[in-house]
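Input record, target 12 of the design panel.
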């Protein structure tokens, strides 16, 4: 990248997941300084105070599945404002652990209501009740969805979490303007 070349505008987003993918991103350690020479992190739960997802993002790493209305709105917003969307980790790719909720939703009388009843009524010892105050609990989707079922995705970066070396390899290609081809056990290993 030359001095005249603008820096890559990079974002990371955390939907319904555990933050493990972001922890793996932070495992890039000193290489993050090299990344900062060629990319500006314009939105991220680990490196930004931004409250609104910005326009004109080049690449966004999206961790987590789409489980509620807030996740859905963020996915749609970032898709509109991002050139390359990366499903970052197994939850974004397949719904993985957050998608286990779908088993309860699939039972007769299931869905979001069954999930809320199980969590807030059946498993609560003190003061069982479903939160109802506005803004306390985002509206659950009937099913937890992988990212590609909600928006178009250009790249899938598997792993639970993806290892730092794989994240670095993918980011290096994206900085060069390439979409890397993940192949073989080292590039495609889930879990």
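The sequence produced for target 12 reads:
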């Amino acid at each position: 990248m030359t001095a005249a070349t603008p820096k890559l505008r990079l974002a990371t987003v955390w939907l319904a997941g555990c933050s493990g993918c972001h922890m793996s991103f932070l495992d890039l350690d000193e290489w993050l300084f090299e990344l900062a020479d060629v990319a500006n992190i314009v939105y991220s739960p680990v490196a930004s105070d931004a409250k609104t997802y910005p326009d004109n993002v080049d690449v966004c790493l999206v961790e987590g599945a789409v489980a509620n209305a807030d996740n859905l709105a963020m996915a749609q917003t970032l898709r509109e404002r991002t050139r390359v969307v990366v499903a970052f980790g197994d939850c974004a790719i397949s719904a993985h652990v957050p998608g286990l909720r779908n088993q309860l939703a699939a039972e007769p009388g299931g869905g979001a209501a069954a999930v809320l009843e199980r969590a807030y009524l059946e498993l609560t010892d003190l003061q069982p009740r479903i939160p109802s105050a506005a803004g306390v609990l985002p509206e659950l989707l009937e099913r937890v969805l992988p990212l590609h079922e909600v928006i178009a995705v250009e790249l899938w970066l598997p792993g639970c979490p993806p290892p730092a070396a794989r994240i670095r390899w993918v980011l290096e290609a994206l900085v060069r303007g390439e979409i890397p081809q993940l192949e073989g056990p080292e590039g495609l290993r889930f879990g």
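The domain at 8-99+143-188 is CATH 3.40.50.700 (Rossmann fold).
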